[in-house]
Amino acid sequence: MDLDAFRRLLTPDGRRALEAAAETVGGDPVAAVTRLRKTFDAGLTSAALTQAALRHRAREKFGADAALMYFTPDGLEQATRREVADHRARRIAPGSRVADACCGIGGDLLALVRAGCTVEAVDADPLTAAVARANADALGFGDRVSVRTADAATVDPAAFDVLFADPARRSARGRTFDPMAYSPAWPEILRMVAGAESACLKVAPGIPYEFIPAGAEAEWVSYRGEVKEAVIWSGALAGPVERRATMLPAGTTLTPDPELGRAGTGPVGRYLYEPDGAAIRAHLVAEVAALVGGRLLDPQIAYITGDAPVETPWASRYEVHEVLPFSLKRLRAALRERGAGNVTIKKRGSAVDVERLRKDLRLSGDKSLTVVLTRIGDRPFALICSSHQAF
Ligand SMILES: C[S@@+](CC[C@H](N)C(=O)[O-])C[C@H]1O[C@@H](n2cnc3c(N)ncnc32)[C@H](O)[C@@H]1O
Where does the THUMP-like domain start and stop, copy by copy (predicted)? Predict the structure, then answer.
């Protein structure tokens, strides 16, 4: 979809085409084209059907608002899901003037406006900026949002209470994990942060620690057990701790306990605990071990073991039934003996190819079990556990 095709969707004709397209979602695509073509030309038909399909897909991230919003395929993929954007926006005082330096289709800017901020946004891509503008209007926030097509470098962070930036982490060659390859590039982002009173940066959860600016707080956020992002808070927005893990949708937060040293290690107990990924990324495994009264199996690996069944939102618990030095033959025999056909395989510190192992195990029973592959010291182990329980 180009900018002209998108603009047509915003006209009265375009809105009618979109309404008609929404009724065809999930049905036969050829019949949908035939139906729309009775009233609309080929360009509008194609744009409306594409947009209706994107809206349908976007419900997972944006809920009911998706039916009113506009998307590009890339913009939808890169947009922050509503619950995560709302969590971040709540930390910014209502009434703040925020610069969104690379707004995409507006997932974050909409959350900032919902939280009571006014937002001046830019995006380098004209179509994406037009979609963000249309989204602010469609949700009734047009008077508190301005969107320009411009490079982030044109934003003067000193003119705002808060600088927000969610740089692009995808290049023509795919997703990048290297902050130096972000767009805007990391040095440009740091220059902007240095000029801002306060800043909030959304970055990939795997950001190397050495990239986190001194004095900033880094928060790792998981949503329904999956780590979504790291957030760097600077200036007045940085909290009193340097690291934090937050689980959404509950909003539970974990911070370093200054009294705790490194987690101890010890033999496999009756239970195995797997910490939430946000706690692992935030280097808070010792804190989770303390919560469950546990110890690590290996000092380098984030599996905790303990003797009591403790319930915590910060870890999934498994009951350990058997610990085997890893060997395909022994594992297959042990699982067959237990009648295990439905096996979840988890691993940390193991190079085993899980899909290959699953095939090689050739399981056929009716029981469900979890196999945890790990190493203790330099020896590989398989732990046969009862199926995973998350709290
Ligand atoms: C990850 S997306 C932002 C997603 C947005 N926060 C949301 O929730 O919808 C990053 C955006 O940065 C834009 N961008 C990349 N380089 C830029 C630059 N130098 N200046 C302004 N925008 C840029 C891209 O066009 C892309 O839309």
Answer: 316-386
